[in-house]
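Severity: low
Component: inverse-folding endpoint
Summary: output formatting inconsistent between runs
Steps to reproduce: submit the following structure tokens with default settings.
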């Protein structure tokens, strides 16, 4: 194997992928070919490569896109700064190293890389539905802890419909903005009546109104109002179940003669559901033994959700989402300790060999 984990990590950070992932995808494909792999680039922009011939398959997944703006590569001793340093070009370098170096005698390892995790997540959802696998390791910054659960995350809209009227005679209309008061109060009580309750690992779900829009003129009773919300779900709640139950709950609180509907903000796009992998699953034990990290939930929504619907899935990698000083991933100060890269790669490699060797 000629792959150099630190050299690839540097090249990856130096390759902007916050607006277009084409150049970064080319680097990934070229790297795979140099090591003798034959990657398949899907129509959506995903990259898939496999090794081994056995029946049991472990998927290694992460993404090549980053959030804006691009932050250039900079190294200070063992600390590497730059966009993607930990989210997720550090984990990508780790998974590549393990993919190339693991002795896979009794199974198959598949590298499955998505292109839009930071935006629409269509790539991860597509990979999860079309690949065959028995376990999944998703590369994200976990501080080398083995993360077995994460909240779901999706956005939706509550559209309130009343009746417009002249503000000089407000009683002749039905004020949708005024009704928004009872709707937001109803959102506060939703989980008490309908929610899944407190999850052992993930705690309580949250439902947060984040935007409100309504009205067209200062002298007119508004006939419509829209409240946008953010939902962080926990198992066993599903997106479809939540949308239907929230609509039922809020409709019952509306003033007579008014109407409302609840819908997803992007109904045509996938949303990550909450998931929790059994801590007794072999992939959890194998990676925990190899890394010696804690077993805990992950603090953000990821593509792991899509894979976890089909097989035991863990989130693992170098770097952290936040540290004592504040945000790291997605922040201007994004960094990773470069000594964690080979340590993480060794842990993934050992876990693969335990499961497939």
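Observed output (run 2 of 3):
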């Amino acid at each position: 194997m000629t792959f150099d984990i630190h050299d690839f990590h540097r090249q990856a950070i130096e390759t902007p992928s916050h607006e277009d992932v084409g150049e970064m995808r080319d680097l990934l494909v070229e790297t795979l070919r140099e090591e003798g792999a034959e990657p398949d680039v899907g129509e959506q922009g995903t990259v898939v490569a496999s090794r081994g011939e056995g029946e049991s398959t472990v998927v290694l997944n992460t993404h090549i896109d980053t959030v804006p703006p691009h932050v250039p590569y900079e190294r200070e001793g063992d600390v590497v700064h730059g966009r993607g340093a930990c989210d997720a070009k550090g984990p990508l370098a780790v998974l590549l190293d393990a993919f190339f170096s693991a002795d896979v005698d009794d199974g198959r390892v598949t590298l499955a890389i998505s292109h839009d995790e930071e935006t629409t997540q269509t790539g991860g959802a597509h990979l999860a539905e079309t690949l065959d696998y028995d376990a999944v390791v998703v590369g994200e910054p976990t501080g080398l802890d083995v993360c077995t659960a994460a909240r779901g995350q999706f956005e939706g809209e509550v559209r309130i419909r009343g009746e417009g009227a002249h503000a000089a005679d407000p009683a002749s209309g039905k004020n949708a903005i005024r009704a928004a008061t009872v709707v937001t109060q109803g959102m506060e009580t939703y989980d008490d009546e309908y929610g899944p309750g407190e999850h052992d690992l993930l705690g309580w779900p949250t439902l947060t109104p984040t935007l409100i829009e309504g009205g067209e003129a200062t002298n007119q009773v508004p006939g419509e109002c829209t409240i946008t919300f953010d939902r962080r779900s926990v198992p066993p709640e599903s997106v479809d179940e939540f949308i239907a139950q929230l609509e039922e709950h809020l409709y019952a609180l509306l003033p007579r003669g008014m109407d409302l509907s609840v819908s997803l903000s992007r109904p045509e796009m996938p949303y990550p559901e909450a998931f929790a992998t059994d801590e007794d699953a072999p992939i959890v034990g194998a990676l925990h033994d190899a890394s010696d990290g804690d077993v805990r939930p992950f603090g953000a929504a990821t593509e792991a959700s899509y894979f976890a619907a089909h097989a035991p899935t863990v989130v693992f990698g170098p770097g952290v989402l936040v540290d004592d000083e504040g945000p790291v991933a997605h922040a201007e100060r994004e960094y990773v300790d470069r000594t964690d890269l080979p340590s993480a790669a060794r842990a993934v490699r050992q876990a693969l060999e335990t499961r497939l060797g």
